[in-house]
Amino acid sequence: MVQRRHKSKSGELENLRSRLQDAQDTLQAIQSGSVDAVVVSSSAGDRLYTLTGAEHAYRVFVEAMNEGAATVAADGTILYCNRCFAEMVRRPLDELIGTSVFALIPAPEIKAFEALLRASLQSSGKAESSLCAAGGQLIPVYVSLRSFAESGARAVAMVVTDLREQKRNQEMLAAGKLARLIMEQATEIVAVCDAHGRVLQASHALEQICGANPLFQTFDSVMTLELQSPESGVRRRRFTVADLFAGHSFRGVEVSYLPSQGERRHFLLSAGPVLLDGQPAGCVITLFDIDERKRVEESLRRSERLAATGRLAATIAHEINNPLEAVTNLLYLIETSSALQPEALGYANAAQQQLARVAHITRQTLAFYRESTSPQPVRLKEITESIISLYRSKAELRNIQIIEDLRFAGEFPGFPNQVAQVISNLFLNALEACPPQGRIWVRVHAAHEWSNSKKPGVRVVIADNGYGVSPRDQPHLFEAFFTTKGEKGTGLGLWVSQGIVARHNGFVRFRSSVNPQRSGTVFSIFFPA
Predict the structure, then answer these.
(1) Of 389, 408, 398, which is closest to residue 458 (Cα–Cα)?
(2) Which residues does residue 457 pair with via DSSP β-bridges, in sequence order?
(3) Three-class DSSP category at 284
(4) Rounded CA gap, 248 and 268, in Å?
(5) What pLDDT score does 488 carry?
(6) What's the fold here for domain 169-289?
C-alpha cells in the first residue's frame, strides 16, 4: 500500500517537472523572440494569443515607411520587401518575394549593381541606380545596402529611395537658373509677360532703356513701340501685347521707341505667345537694337549722294570749261581794242581776273575727279597751294587766318588726285573746326620717318586752334562712318584718307586737346620720297 502510494507521488513529481520544463522552454522562446503567438487550451476551447515583442514595432515601422525596403540574399533573391517597394516597381508584393532583384535592374546597370551587392556583403554600400517598373518605366533610385547575418548566412538589408521627384525638381531648378542667367546677361531686350501683359522676367537691357524697374508692370506701359511700315517707313500704329493674344505674331518687324529723355531708338521686334495646353499663358518679346545699322545705312546713302554730286560737278566743270575759253578769248580781244575807254578797260581787266579764277576752280574740279591708273609724280607743294586757294574765300568770310610754310619743292611717285583728296579732307576739317577769327597752320617740309627706318620723305602738317576732339572720340576717329559733325558729316573722310596714305606707304598721326587754354588739333602726314 505504502509502495503504491510512493509510486503515485513519484509520477506526479515527474509530471510536474515535465510541465515546469515545458513552461521554462516556452518562456525562453518568448524571451528570445522565437514565438510570435501562444495557443492556450481551456474549457471554452483553444485560444490564440499574439505576442508583441521588440520586433513588432520594428516591422510596423518598416511597413509604414515611405522608402522602399527589402532583404536580399547573397545571390540576389528577394527574401522580404515592404509595400512601398512593391508600389515603387508596380508589382504585387507576393510576386516579388522569391524573385531575383536583378530582374528589376536595367541591363546596362546590372554589372554595376552586382559589384555594389558584392561589396555590401562585406560591409555596406550606397549608389544611384535605376529600377524597371511594370510597363518598362525606369525609376531613378538611391540604394543603400548593409549586410547582416540571418540563420548563419549573410544577407543584405536594402533601403531604396525614389528620386523621380528630386530629379524633376533639379531639372526645374536648373532650367530656372539657366533662364535667369540668359535674362541677366542678354545684351538685347528680352521680356517674358503673363496672360495680362505684365512683365514677369526681363533682361537688364530693358531696365536700362526704360530707366526704371519694369517687373510686374504691363509691357505696353513700359515701352510704347510704334510699328514701321515696310513699304514707306512711316509710322503705322502702335504695338500692343493684345496683338499677340489675338493670334498675331511678329518676326523681325521694325519698330521705334521714343524714351522720355534722348533720341528715338529703332529695333527689330520678334514676339509671340506662350501656349500652355493650347491656350495663351503669356508671351515672349525680344527687341534687337538696329540704331547702328540705321546710321550706317544713312551714311552709305549720304556717301552715294556725295559721289553722285561729285560726278555731276565734274560733268558741269567739263561743260563750263569750253565756254570759259571762248569768254576768255573775247575778253582778251576787248582788252586789246584801241577804242576801249580807260574805265571800260579797268572793268575788262577785273572780269579777266575773275574769269581766270573760275577757270582755275574748274580745272581743279576736273583734276580732283579724274583718277590715274599708274603712279605719277606728286608735287605736294603745288597740290597744297591749289587746295588752299580753293578754300581761301571761305576762310576769309569767317576771318580765319591761314599761315603757310611750304618749303618742300620736290616730288614723289604716287596718285596726285588721291593725295589732293587727303589734303582737301584735312584742310576742310580744320576750317570747319576753327572758330571765327581762328588760325590754321599748313606746313610742307622734307623729313624722315620717326620709326627706326629713318627713311627720307615729306611731311604735311595741318593744325588748327579749334575746339579739339574729346578723348572719348579720339580712338574712333579713323573708323568708317564715325563722325563728330552730326548730320553734316559722313564719317568717311578720315577713314578714306588713312587708306590713301597707307597705299602710299605713309602714315597719319594726330594729337588733339580740348583744354580751353590751348585747344586744337594737329594732323601730321608722312609720305616716303
Answers:
(1) 408
(2) 447, 528
(3) strand
(4) 16
(5) 66
(6) Beta-Lactamase (3.30.450)
Evaluate if residue 373 carries a pLDDT over 60: yes
CA angle 434, 483, 425 (to 5 degrees): 55
With beta carbons less than 8 A apart as the criterion, state whether 114 and 100 touch.
no
Measured between its terminal Cα atoms, the distance across the chain in Å is: 161
Q: Topology of domain 373-528, per CATH? A: Heat Shock Protein 90 (3.30.565)
**Residue 200: strand, helix, or coil:** strand
d(CA 205, CA 203): 5
Q: Among all chains, which residue has been given the C-alpha cell 520678334?
A: 270
Separation between Cα atoms, residue 134 and residue 86, nearest integer Å? 10
What pLDDT was estimated at residue 351? 75
Assess contact for 42 and 36: CB atoms under 8 A: no
CA neighbor of 141 nearest in space, from 61, 58, 69, 59: 69
State whether CATH 1.10.287 applies to domain 291-370. yes
Strands (E) across 247-400 are located at 250-257, 265-276, 279-289, 376-378
C-alpha cell of residue 158? 536594402
CA of residue 411 relative to chain centroid, distance = 52
pLDDT tens-place string over residues 108-122: 999 999 999 988 888
Residue 496, H or E segment: helix 493-503
Domain boundaries, the chain: 2-40, 54-160, 169-289, 291-370, 373-528
Q: What is the DSSP letter of 44?
A: T
Which DSSP category does 483 fall into? -
* Residue for grid cell 556717301: 303
Q: Return the HEC string of 89-107.
A: HCCCHHHHCCCEHHHHCCH
How many angstroms separate the CA atoms of 134 and 112, rounded?
A: 22
Asked if residue 117 lies in contact with residue 156, where contact means CB atoms within 8 angstroms, the answer is yes
pLDDT in tens, 460-479: 999 999 989 999 888 888 88
Q: How many residues does the chain have?
A: 529
Residue 499 phi/psi, 5-degree rounding, is -65, -40
> Cβ(490)–Cβ(501) under 8 Å?
no
Neighbour-count burial of 458, counting CB atoms closer than 10 A to its CB (0-12 exposed, 13-18 middle, 19+ buried): buried
Answer whether residue 158 shows pLDDT above 70. yes
Among 34-38, 40-44, 151-155, 298-302, top mean pLDDT goes to: 151-155
Question: Same CATH fold, 169-289 and 54-160?
Answer: yes
Give me the architecture of the 54-160 domain, per CATH. 2-Layer Sandwich (3.30)
* Cell digits of residue 140: 531613378
Grid coordinates given for 181: 542667367
User: In angstroms, rounded to a whole number, what is the distance separating the alpha carbons of residues 40 and 31?
Assistant: 18
Render pLDDT for 40-74 as a digit per residue (tens, 0 to 9).
666 665 554 555 555 566 677 788 888 999 999 98
Beta strands in 415-495 (DSSP E): 439-448, 456-464
Helix (H, G, I), strand (E, B) or coil at 317: helix
